[in-house]
Amino acid sequence: MRFLEKQFSGSPATVRVAPFVIFLALTACQGKLGETSAYWLYFAKTLAGAWLIWEMCPLVAEMRWAISWEAILVSVGIFAVWVGLDPFYPKFSSKGATGNPNEAFGQNSPLAWFFIAVHVLGMTFVVPPLEEVFYRSFLHRYFASQNFLSVPLNKFLPLPFFATALVFGFSHNEWLAGIICGVAFQWLVIRKDRLGDAMTAHAITNFLLGLWIVWRGAWNFW
């Protein structure tokens, strides 16, 4: 038996919300204990997030990766939007949650590359399942009905659709790109009647963004 299976199994809402809230709380702690703590806490929350996903898997049937041409197209398009729109609208903050590991640990030092790798892996494989389950599986359907499991994944409901996109967008520093991203990922869920394509699109987008950050030194994105 998984450690949290008993706590999670009794509530479909808890198993979709609690892991995201825990991950969000750890994110809020980044940098509170000094500059380098942001990196160590990102590492800790990535491990915690991976464990939470493992705990969730047997209880969230829709949390299954799936790939399609639509997911790939959306992922590349959202990456282009995220990077392309960046100079043209104000952000909530001028710097990301961590920053440049080379400045914190030394240019091209082993620790700098370790935390770069951790960040890219975390944003690619841990963030997408947690966020997609919370926003697309739970929140979108909960806006429609408190009995959210009764709402089909492929049902388009204008108010929940756009409300979820706004909440998703405003939870990101790059809020405008985030709103567009929320619309695109929700469209994928509705079109494919499953969560996996949105998870894949989210993962590819984040991976491409991670490569862009490292290549261009655009550390503000994380």
Can you walk me through this structure?
The chain has 222 residues and is mainly alpha-helical. The protein has one domain. Helix 2 packs antiparallel against helix 6, helix 6 packs antiparallel against helix 9 and helix 8 runs antiparallel to helix 9. The chain is globular and about 50 Å long. The termini are far apart.
Q: Major sheet: size, sense and barrel closure?
A: none
Give the helix tally. 9
> Which strand-content bin applies to the residues?
under 5%
The total beta strand count reads 0
Low-confidence stretches: none
- Average pLDDT across residues? 94
| Secondary-structure element string | HHHHHHHHH
How far is it from the N-terminal to the C-terminal residue, by CA?
Answer: 36 Å
User: How much helicity do the residues have?
Assistant: 55-70%
The 3D shape can be described as globular
Radius of gyration from the CA trace? Answer: 17 Å
Short recap of the structure:
By secondary structure, the protein is mainly alpha-helical.
Key terms for this structure?
222 residues, globular, mainly alpha
Topology:
Blueprint: H1 5-9, H2 12-29, H3 37-56, H4 69-84, H5 101-105, H6 110-144, H7 158-170, H8 175-192, H9 196-216
